[in-house]
Amino acid sequence: MVPKSNTHRKEFTLQNLCVQVLSKKDQQQYWSRTEERYSFVTVDQFCDKFKASQSGQNLTEELSKPYDKSKGHKNALSFSIYSLSKWDLLKACFARELLLMKRNAFLYITKAVQLGLLAVITGTVFLRTHMDADRVHATYYMGSLFCALLLLMVNGFPELAMAISRLPVFYKQRDYYFYPAWAYAIPSFILKIPVSLVESVAWTSISYYLIGYTPEASSFFRQLLVLFLIHTVSLSMFRCVASYCQTMVAGSVGGRMAFLVILLFGGFITVSGVTLGRRILIDQELDFSRYFYWISIGALIGFILLFNAGFAIGLTIKNRRMVLPFTPLVISFQDVNYYVDTPAGPESLGQGYFDNELDAWVGLRKDGYICSCQVASRSNTSTVEPEWKMVKEKLFLKVPERQLKSARATLAYMGNSNFCLVEFLLREGVEFKYTFGDRDGCVLQMSMFGLKYDRKGELQIMRHRTNSIAIPGVPRIKDNYNPSTWVLEVTSASMGVDFAQINDQRGLFTILGCMYGVTLFTGINNCQSVMPFVSIERSVVYRERFAGMYSPWAYSSFAQVAMEIPYVLVQVVLFMLIAYPMIGYAWTAAKFFWFMYTMSCTLLYFLYLGMMMVSLTPNIQVVSILASMFYTLQNLMSGFIVPAPQIPRWWIWLYYISPMSWTLNVFFTTQFGDDNDRMIVVFGETKSVTAFMRDYFGFRRDLLPLAAVALAAFPILFAVLFGYNISQLNFQRR
């Protein structure tokens, strides 16, 4: 077949000719055998005809001969999938990453300026001239350290958005064998080290002496090193999350889950009471030796290496599935019971108590020593009895001749490896026969202490405090009467205090911290989750608004805003069904519905806040920076780390415009603000829960209606601002 020159005088390219000759529609016009009837010639028929021709046979014969490699150039064949050596690839990726960082210099400068501003705010909130060396202010010093660590962790959220935005280009270039994943991951890690250093230096230099930490230079540089490493860990962690999640929606979920683990297990939200100096560290479960600082430094470096290795692995294994060479088998057990034989050991007085932290039973020996017996493992098949441990310090029967013979000492368990030993002693010069009755002849001695194992595995006492109280008119203990009940009745009647109503300070702060942590996390979770969707939908809204399909207010106020309400209500119901009974809140109708109202308003204003911030910014990277600053301010000005009465006057306005402060106000007031009968011991003082809420947090029951109205105003305000911004602002570039 050839073109008919008398009918087709156009110039043909080889490509056009091939397309038309092989097409059923155009092939007939090239049919040159006029004496034969036309029939369509397929591609396979063309191939067979070419192979049968002389040219095809010559080509086949030439290709069948082995190629003599000695005649070829040494660079004619490539033995590597990459065009450059590993070192050249690494240098090229370094240059590429540096160029991208220069292009995004505005984002890094904005983050540094934002961090400096937050350092000024935090330093002036915890200003050293307003901080004394007492029990109450010791809590604020610990809160300032927690705030710094949390801020630098939250500061890594923008890294998640920037890493995800680069992934499509990376995967395309990786699949074309431009460079391997490790060559991309190493520069991403190393070139971010100066960023972490600059931001940690900015924070520490501004806030350290404003807050009033110890002025030694060594302490300053130690804190700087920790903050630098924690910021590097944060950036590495969010890059690692980005490599596995790969989209902003999934990345937001993964980043929030990682942040939740750090928030809950960081050791601050569920805390105990504090005193001074080393006692603060002991009560905060931070009673470690000095060398643990360097162990912590090593652990942070290990996390940095781990997250960056995970980042490189995640970039490498994308689009690869691991097929298990076996069928997974799941086995479940029901009604499984086990027991541990009581080993032959020293006889104890009264009931033993099992402590989860020690993983042992604790009791009081007859000779006055505290002993423990570790529990055998469930899977342990050894016949060796568990080993007994005994403290070296004697707590009971220190003065044997003064011990009452009719009353035995009582060991009470207070939780979290804390115990209370109660014993009755004769007063000086009082005979035993005159002890009971109306005379003041008995002394109640209470020893409160904690137990832990030291580095050698020995049981030791910590936080030991002893108080003695004179008890007049002690009645005799009845036969077969519980000594603990007798002690409680005697002390309550003689002192006029119902000890059954006194709760531990640690328990109250734990439940308040849990309420604070859950509220903050669920709010951040909602705010982060809505941002990618609104950012994607905004470009569609611009196009449809320009086409005149609907009003921007119809989209923002009636569609986008309204559809979030059922979603939030489902979240609240699920949370209430699971978390409310597990945490142990009061089961009264008023407190239950107050909790639902507060949780609904909180989740709504976080959602609408995320939508509003997206409408104010041009892209998801900028909104991530703005959101991280908002999260930090919410954490600082919520009224939990620094209560309202302790916030300086020049920052109190920031407390009142913070939505989280009103959330905690309604939460704490409705759950605990009416407990006038319950007594707690906080910072060495005994007061009612209501008085503690009023004096420490500044939450008053009579101002609850105002707090409830203010809480409802925030979601309305953010929703209106979102609608206005969508209708007035346009960040579309094309």
Report what the structure shows.
This protein has 22 helices and 11 strands. The chain is an alpha+beta fold and 734 residues long. It folds into 4 domains: 1-62, no CATH class; 86-316, no CATH class; 349-376 and 386-475; 505-728, no CATH class. The strands form 3 sheets. It has a 4-stranded antiparallel sheet with strand order 1-2-3-4, with no helix packed on it. The chain has a 4-stranded antiparallel sheet with strand order 5-6-7-8, covered by helices on one side. Strands 9-10-11 form a 3-stranded mixed sheet.
Features:
disordered N terminus; 11 strands; 54% helix; 10% strand; 734 residues; four-stranded antiparallel beta sheet; elongated; single chain; alpha+beta
Question: What's the quaternary structure here?
Answer: single chain
Form type = elongated
- The first-to-last residue Cα distance is 50 Å
What amount of the residues lies in strands?
Answer: 5-15%
Biggest sheet descriptor: 4 strands, antiparallel
Number of helices: 22
Mean pLDDT: 76
